[in-house]
Amino acid sequence: MTVTIRQAIIEDARCIVEAEREIAQEPGYLCSQPSELSEENVKRTIEAAQGIYLVAEKEGHLVGHAFLKALHLQSLRHVAQLHIVVHKGHQAQGIGTRLMEKLIEWAKQSGTVEKIELNVRASNTRAIALYQKMGFFEEGRLQRRVKLGDRYIDDILMALHVKGSGM
After folding, report:
1. Were both Cys, which of 8, 10, 20, 107 would link to 53 (CB 3.0–4.6 Å)?
2. What mean pLDDT do residues 113-142 have?
3. CATH number of the domain where residue 91 is located
4. For the whole model, what pTM was predicted?
5. Would you tell me how many other CB atoms lie within 10 Å of the CB of residue 56?
6. Residue 67: inside a domain, yes or no?
7. Whole-number Å distance between alpha carbons of 5 and 149
8. Each residue of 72-98: pLDDT tens digit?
9. Residue 153 belongs to what domain range?
């Protein structure tokens, strides 16, 4: 069963938002609630072309998606924010690694991206392990950032320098 990584298209939006809604039902992975996720927002992100938006496809079905979104301000244009989701039932199959490899490769070849940043809930140990495997390091921690009922989860800020390190 081959997994194909390709550029996202508008027609992928419905599947992407459905997958995110399913994952958002399980506390501690996404910050968004299922009702806060919309197909229109996904379409806008795909159309915006402010970076790269990829999907992982297996046997004609989407099994993951990820994007890098470049920041707009002149002094921050060298930074891209990462968002990645491996769809439910497809975790621990190397899909996240494949998506991350393609995003990092794109960033290195972009000519503008020097740093990739992401936020991950401290409770999402599988994702943290993937990011560390890919070379990301913890830059900081936003304590008690995500509130789930009466409990809190820290948000970990992680980064990967893909070019340069000078000041």
Report:
1. 8
2. 96
3. 3.40.630.30
4. 0.90
5. 26
6. yes
7. 37
8. 899 999 999 999 999 998 989 999 999
9. 3-161
- Strand pairing partners for 138? 158
Q: How many residues are recorded in the chain? A: 167
The domain total for the chain is 1
Residue 166 domain-assigned (yes or no): no
What distances in angstroms separate CA 61 from CA 5, 45, 57, one per listed residue?
A: 12, 20, 5
- Please answer whether residues 89 and 73 qualify as being in contact, where contact means their C-beta atoms are separated by less than 8 angstroms: no
- Average pLDDT value for residue range 130-148: 95
Residue showing tokens 């190397």: 94
> Which residue has 């990739």 as its token pair?
116
**Contacts with 80 (C-beta within 8 Å, 6 or more apart), sequence order:** 51, 68, 69, 70, 71, 107, 113, 115, 116, 117
CA distances for 65 relative to 94, 146, 164, angstroms: 13, 23, 27
Please tell me what DSSP assigns to residue 59.
T
Instruction: State both tokens at 135.
Output: 């070379």
Contact yes or no for 51/70 (Cβ under 8 A): yes
**Which is nearest to 68 in space by CA: 11, 20, 116?**
116
How far is the first Cα of the chain from the last one, in angstroms, to the nearest whole number? 46
Condensed to tens digits (0 to 9), the pLDDT of residues 46-64 reads: 888 778 999 999 999 999 9
